[in-house]
Specification:
The protein contains eight helices and eleven strands. With 247 residues, it is an alpha/beta fold. Helix 1 runs parallel beside helix 2 and helix 7 packs parallel to helix 8. The longest helix is centred in the C-terminal third of the chain and has 27 residues.
Length: 247
């Protein structure tokens, strides 16, 4: 496998089949790694059934990691990345299972990934946007992105999106698999590490579609965790700089 898509799932039975159809229509040679956190709605069964339709040289192009219990978004992505790297993937696409990330954007993202270390599917550059979002979701996302750029000095416009394409070498270079944060704080912490490593980072405009089926995994707990991680990292950097200047 040269290109792999890593997709965390938790009760996404209604979305998996159309998502896989869209991914293989957009890029027939891609492999997909589904990382399931103990779904109770039959997601694993849908994945296994779909896996019987997609093969490359006699080997399945859809692989399922069943973790058996809810361990969290970040570690699910990391487990999928580990398997992709083990299987020889040089580029790893990270995307959500709820159809919010349209596979039609894959060709543009993969094309840019040929010259970039990391490509972000961006809602906040010309041509990008969101669909079916309420004002509260727009305010939350806009505020989060603004704070990440302000406090961490990250230059990307979309710092909290989960539609990305990674060069496998960058994942290992920046220690992305060693990050201990959970939830969506993983997204901006990983991006911050890439900026500090002076990685070449590009952005491709995407339209983010709010989910139609299933339940959102966003919660107050996840939001509070992300804010604590962001403010903690900013405070540490501020004190480290102060110590350096006074030494």
């Amino acid at each position: 496998m040269q290109i792999a898509a890593v997709i965390p799932t938790l009760n996404e039975a209604s979305n998996i089949e159309p998502l896989l159809e869209g991914i293989f229509a957009a890029h027939p040679s891609i492999h997909v790694i589904i990382v399931d956190d103990g779904s109770t709605d039959g997601t694993d069964g849908v994945v296994n059934r779909c896996a019987q339709k997609y093969f490359c040289d006699g080997a399945p192009k859809v692989l399922l990691i069943e973790r058996g219990q809810k361990k969290g978004y970040a570690s699910a992505v990391q487990d999928g990345m580990r398997l992709a790297i083990k299987e020889g993937a040089t580029r790893i696409v990270q995307m959500d299972a709820d159809l919010s990330h349209n596979p039609e954007h894959l060709p543009a993202i993969l094309q840019m990934s040929e010259t970039c270390d990391l490509v972000l599917g961006s809602r906040y550059i010309p041509g990008g946007g969101t669909r079916n979002w309420g004002w509260d979701r727009k305010v939350l996302s806009g505020t989060a992105n603004g704070l990440v750029r302000l406090l961490l000095g990250v230059k990307a416009r979309d710092c909290t999106g989960g539609f990305r394409c990674w060069n496998s070498e960058l994942i290992e270079k920046c220690g992305i698999l060693d990050l201990k944060v959970e939830g969506y704080a993983f997204l901006f912490i990983a991006l911050d590490r890439c900026y500090r490593a002076k990685a070449i980072i590009g952005e491709v405009p995407i339209i983010f579609n709010d989910r139609q089926f299933g339940k959102s995994k966003m919660s107050r707990k996840i939001i509070i965790e992300a804010m604590k991680v962001l403010l903690g990292l900013w405070w540490k950097r501020k004190n480290d700089l102060k110590t350096f200047l006074l030494s």
